[in-house]
Amino acid sequence: MFVKRFLTTLAILGLASGPVLAQAPATGTTPPAKPPAAAAPPAATAPAAKPAATAAAPAGKKINLNTATEKELDGLPEVGKARAKVIMDARTKGAFKDWADFEKRMTGTSVNAEVKRKIKDLVVF
Predict the structure, then answer these.
(1) How many CB atoms are closer than 10 A to CB 81?
(2) Which runs of consecutive H residues, i.e. helices, occur in 18-124?
(3) How far apart are alpha carbons 73 and 86 in whole angstroms?
(4) Which residues touch 85 (CB under 8 Å, ≥6 apart)?
């Protein structure tokens, strides 16, 4: 019983005296650097505006639907890899003649009216 009390007392004293017995800096030396102040939170910024044309279809350069690569087609608005594949599969049956031919051949596919409306001014045949 005595040993248990003795060890408990030593443990309490050890925990309490830890900060007191910490080594102090030697005199004549520079004090340790203070931790940097908490950085101010970054100022709120307005979200960047989305560009009107995508990188794959810069202004003035239109994509030819008969020769465009999958990557170029993927760069058109609302046209991802799946729709690019649909367009590429349709043109294997023959080149698109004009916009009316493209619309007719894309009827019933995932290239819906909304997608056609968004890409109409960005493509040529």
Answers:
(1) 11
(2) 70-74, 81-91, 99-106, 113-119
(3) 10
(4) 70
pLDDT at residue number 54: 44
Measure the CA dihedral 107/109/113/119, to 10°.
-110
Consecutive H or E run containing 112: none
CB-based contacts of 82: which residues, under 8 Å, 6+ apart? 110
- Count of positions (residues) in the chain: 125
Q: Give residue 7's pLDDT.
A: 80
d(CA 51, CA 77): 11
What stretch of H or E contains 4? helix 2-17
Bridge pairing between strands 63-64 and 123-124: parallel
Per-residue pLDDT tens over the stretch 38-50: 666 666 666 665 5
